[in-house]
Write a structure and sequence with these properties.
Layout (H helix, E strand, L loop, with lengths): L5 H19 L3 H17 L4 H25 L4 H36 L14 H17 L7 H9 L1 H4 L7 H9 L8 H36 L7 H32 L17 H7 L2 H15 L6 H19 L3 H27 L7 H21 L3 H12 L3 H6 L19 H16 L3 H5 L1 E3 L10 E3 L6 H17 L11
Antiparallel strand pairs: 1-2
Helix pairs in contact: 1-2, 2-6, 3-4, 3-5, 3-6, 4-5, 6-8, 9-10, 9-18, 9-20, 10-15, 10-16, 10-18, 12-13, 13-14, 14-15, 15-16
Length: 506
């Protein structure tokens, strides 16, 4: 079941919400159980057999967390707590590794050995990367003494909570568990319904009207690489820019919808995006893009590796390791590893430049912020080519086309009025519509406010874990405009195929 489907919007979400608040009048415990059961049903709509896998993962991690917590509470040997933590993390990584990386490892070793080993018939469970990382963070937090609540109903809901289960955000125990214990979570709140519906509508519009539109321009170009076709320079840039915008509106749209759905249920999810394409450098980009994953990699990988505590060389090595593993987390393909490594190189260069700039006392260049934004965006576009391509050969072919200027090619381009933009006569994947939509997308991501600014929601600064992650102010957009966006999105769903979110595959 998809957020952008009639079944979800007009059946699952209303029924789940109404029953939740009705049951909550008499029992918060049963209301939480209902929400957990609804989340499992939501997950099972994709493939019922994997509900048992999710429940087994939840049961094991809850038991391990309970054991680690009681070892700490009894003030027994820290080695015993650490041993249990290692067992728990190993179980989660083995589970993730089997489903996600078995065929990747078989294929890689087979290629190196020159063998022809057959791949296994393994179906990747939706959301396994997200609920695995969520539970690893829980075990680490228990070991550190940060997580101390062991209510199984709340834990079940924390892991399986349907707004985040399939494609994030990556959640932390301290962000969610306390909310399930608050009485106001179980009380119908019309203000939260309004705010949540506004955020959901913006996310739905992003997905249906923007992301799916840019897919029409990105997919033909990237798919043509599989047949060995070399795109022209113009095609390559149209395809890469279209995918850059598709991925942003698709994933940020999903995250907005998740935040909005959860807000209607009085539960605050952490925000995941803060206009990342407005970033002035790659360091800032990673503070704005997929913020919950960036925080997880920082807190549970980069810092434990040593962070910046052991000198410049060690710091840069830790950055590279973190980004390489972050790339591999996204998918079992060398393109993701190289994508992560490329961003690791970007970060090393950026940190080195900042250190040199500070040490030499160089002045601030007028217009430097705007130039930095453009340079950062272009470097991100090149990296997304690696992220989107099916293999390294296709990625290199695309990058070569983007960098190879051919004056004769440009002079021969004839724009077609055919929509969606396939010029059959000249075999060019380009039209005025493609260029216009890309320009519109760039204006939106660079010049317009983001979702939380439009609705009046901001990141909560200096808030304790038990306080709300987000809070609402007076809305900045008339309700009638949001109503139009919702109506247009719903009508569009009726006339076309309901598409999956890109991050479902990760």
């Amino acid at each position: 079941m998809l957020f952008n489907s009639y079944q979800f919007i007009f059946l699952f979400l209303p029924i789940t919400s109404i029953v939740f608040f009705i049951v909550a009048r008499n029992s918060k415990k049963f209301a939480a159980l209902w929400l957990g059961a609804a989340s499992l049903f939501f997950y099972g709509m994709w493939n019922p057999q994997f509900v048992w896998l999710l429940l087994a993962s939840i049961g094991f991690n809850y038991a391990m967390g309970y054991a680690i917590g009681h070892v700490r509470a009894a003030k027994q040997s820290g080695k015993q707590s650490k041993r249990l933590l290692i067992i728990g993390i190993a179980f989660n990584l083995l589970l993730l590794g089997y489903f996600k990386y078995t065929n990747f490892c078989i294929g890689t070793v087979s290629q190196i050995a020159g063998a022809h080993w057959g791949l296994q018939d393994i179906v990747l469970p939706l959301g396994i990367s997200f609920f695995t990382f969520t539970q690893i963070a829980f075990l680490v937090d228990v070991h550190r003494g940060i997580a101390r609540e062991y209510n199984f109903t709340h834990y079940l809901l924390f892991v399986s909570y349907f707004p985040h289960l399939i494609a994030g955000p990556v959640l932390h125990h301290k962000q969610m568990m306390p909310q399930f214990g608050h009485s106001f979570t179980y009380k119908f709140n019309i203000d939260n319904i309004n705010v949540g519906l506004m955020i959901f509508t913006i996310g739905l519009f992003k997905k249906v009207m923007l992301a799916d539109q840019f897919a029409l321009y990105a997919n033909p170009v990237f798919n043509s690489l599989s047949s060995g076709r070399t795109p022209s320079m113009t095609e390559a840039w149209v395809g890469s820019l279209a995918y850059t915008l598709q991925l942003y509106f698709d994933f940020s749209g999903y995250s907005d919808m998740a935040v909005g759905i959860s807000k209607m249920l009085n539960v605050n999810l952490p925000l995941n995006f803060a206009s990342p394409y407005k970033a002035k450098n790659i360091i800032e980009f990673w503070r704005r893009w997929h913020m919950t994953l960036s925080a997880f990699l920082r807190d549970y990988l980069y810092i434990p590796l040593g962070g910046n505590r052991y000198g410049v060389v060690r710091r840069y090595a830790n950055l590279m390791i973190t980004m390489l593993l972050g790339g591999l987390w996204h998918g079992a393909n060398w393109t993701f590893v190289f994508w992560g490594g490329l961003h690791g190189v970007y970060l090393v260069i950026n940190h080195g430049w900042q250190a040199a700039h500070k040490k030499l006392g160089l002045p601030t260049i007028p217009g430097g912020a705007a130039a930095g934004c453009v340079i950062t965006f272009i470097t991100v576009v090149f990296a997304w080519v690696m992220f989107r391509s099916n293999n390294l050969d296709a990625a290199l072919l695309m990058l070569k086309s983007m960098l190879w200027f051919n004056a004769a090619e440009v002079s021969q381009i004839q724009f077609s009025a055919v929509f969606p933009y396939i010029n059959i006569a000249n075999n060019e994947f380009i039209s005025p519509a493609a260029v216009i939509w890309i320009l519109i997308g760039l204006v939106i991501v660079w010049l317009m406010p983001n979702s939380q600014q439009i609705v009046g929601i901001e990141l909560a600064q200096n808030k304790t874990p038990r306080q709300e992650m987000i809070f609402a102010k007076q809305t900045a957009m008339p309700a009638i405009l949001l109503g139009i966006l919702f109506f247009v999105s719903i009508i569009t769903l009726a006339s076309g195929k309901v598409s999956e979110f890109l991050y479902f595959q990760f």
